[in-house]
Amino acid sequence: MEQKSSSFDKVLSSWDILVIAFGAMIGWGWVVSSGSWITTGGVGGAALGFVIGGIMVFFVGLTYAELTSAMPQCGGEHVFSHRAMGPIGSFVCTWAIVLGYASVACFEACALPTIVTFLYPDFLQGYLYTVEGFDVYASWLAVAVIVAIFMTYINIRGVKAAAKLQTLLTVIIAGAGILLMVASAINGDASNLESQMFVGDDGFSMLKTTLAVAVMTPFFFIGFDVIPQAAEEINVDLKKIGQILILSVVLSVVFYALVIIAVGLALSGPEILASEKSAAGLVTADAMAKVMNSAMMAKVIIIGGMCGIITSWNSFLMGGSRALYSMAESYMVPKTFAKLHPEYKTPINALYLIGALTILAPFAGRKMLVWVVDAGNFGCCVAYCMVAISFIILRSKEPDLARPFRVSHYRVVGALAVIMSGFMVVMYILPGSGAALVPQEWAMVGGWCFLGLIFGFLCKQKYGERFGLLVDIISDEDAAALQSTDEEISVALDGAIDAAINKILTQRKLNMA
């Protein structure tokens, strides 16, 4: 194991890490996808589906919380899986989570100009070409590319700058969502729920449609795992980090479930279907317009959704770059990705790479990005399952490891986390499950795996025995001590022993007195 002094600045507060995780999880999906959730499972079925998905993420989150407090190093999944499974397991786990982070960031680059189009219908100018039925315009591309450059720049400037932006935007998102919930509770119609609580003619079909929603939910809960990626930059008690991680998951589950119920109170089944089939398809915005009796209020929800795009984008740039940095530190990918900015102490080359992908992604059109996101969601579920397995392994392998946040009944928690995350992985693989990846998505997963194999092979050839070396980050004080001469260490030890003896003698004199 190699040791080095931490190069990151500890600047993130409790509030910072809460809004980073919560802002990443609530994102834009609650504005654009609520209609499809309800038409798939019904209001009750969709809300229950999110609770089921939330339970899975909750148990996985508990494993993350304990492991993060025990190993607060940059890389999160990379460190956990390496310590439990070794270099190969760590490579697979971390490479899978990088796919998830990068795919979401790329998707957000396409989502933002699409929302601008809704706000300003005449915005689309300068037709260029069509990809899979989606028309790409120069103005659409310009907004996507400019904002992608800006987001990359903000993250290069440092995690604190990114956290400040995250706080502002998350407050706006939460405010818009709460306004919808309150307005629907006051002006909504409970009779709207009677005919759309569940989809299906019998209990089995209702369960199937509810689970169809549940398997969609991991994508919308991705984000809590960004906290371990930035663990070295968090200036918070280790036990508290775990508590905040779990709180972010619970808040997100509650937020999504209440939004679904609010939309169900505001719109009847036929109204939701009509909104779904409209050009915009923004059911949540139409629900706000109805309960507030103002078309202008729909734009409040849309603005909240735009903020959600930025918060998710921001978090996944942060998480993806740190995961890639940690792999480079272990000589698993080219060492250039371990370079830190000399002033801002951010993984600059890793940010350049993921930032470049978000700049290029809009050129492929929106349809292809849907495939990328599904492939990335599969990658995240694989990583979650491997972290849960690592949690169980380390409890057996290293029972005395210091765990400031310690999970009770770890066997039950670990087993449930493995089973539920593993179930999600199977649903993506199993044909006819309703969530199985399509051929284009399998091609992307296969391409990503092939790229990983190339990186792994080349780095193994170049770095030899250093490939897969886990870098143990220690404090600056400990690093300085390790660099001292033998004479300096002897003097320090003698001084410490003398101080301890004097303390004992002093205490005895006080007791005798």
Account of the 3D structure:
With about 525 residues, this protein is mainly alpha-helical. Helices cover about 70% and strands about 5% of the residues. It is built from 19 helices and four strands. It has helices spanning about 15-25, 30, 35-70, 75-120, 140-155, 160-185, 205-215, 215-220, 225-230, 240-265, 270-275, 285-290, 295-330, 350-360, 365-395, 410-430, 440-465, 475-480, 485-510; strands spanning about 1-5, 125-130, 135, 470-475. The strands form two sheets. Strands 1-4 form a two-stranded parallel sheet. The chain has a two-stranded antiparallel sheet with strand order 2-3. Strand 2 (about 125-130) and strand 3 form a beta hairpin. It is globular, with a radius of gyration of 25 Å. The protein starts with a strand and ends with a helix.
